[in-house]
Amino acid sequence: MSSVLLIDGHPNPESLCSALAARYAQGARSAGASVDVLALRELRFDPVLHLGYRGEQPLEPDLQQAQQRIRAASHVCLVTPLWWGSVPALLKGFFDRTLQRGWAYRYKPNGMPEGLLAGRSARVLLTTDSPGWYLRLVQGSPTERQLVRSTLRFCGFQPVRVTRFGPVHNSQPADRARWLEQAAALGGTDAARCLAAGVRPGAVVQAR
User: Fold this and answer.
1) In terms of pTM, does the model score above 0.85?
2) C or N: which end of the chain has fewer Cβ atoms within 10 Å?
């Protein structure tokens, strides 16, 4: 059975993101996948990388378990709002602390990075108040640059798909109902892809 890890990066459990996460999980389970839900707001960890990358900051138990859960997954779905062209501080801090060099990536002798979490696919469910054309033409697709290219693909995830929901700020109940149904359908589609491909959790390459 393929394993789907669903990471809810919104600080508020009553958010649209959390509702989308729940429906995505429902769809993936209906397709036959095992779903593990990781709500970052429930973890106990310091999101601040106090020494940057100049010193060691031991992982809290919740982050150690999060690494194990990422390693066990064949597909990761990340659910987050777009705030100021980026993600909430909670999610950014999770990336800073958890995606460690030597575990999520390493540098080759020629200086080029190598993702160590290859063998896994990913989906980003993104809520936004701005229309898609504005994000592309005015802001330069910040989601693509930060989440897809500079984080998930950097660590080896492939392919990475993005689905945007919005604009949220003036949405109607019918819009949200449609988005929730779409999230459930995506969960089923992604799970079916993994099952059809026989995808199993990829091994983390050991740093040399």
Assistant:
1) yes
2) C
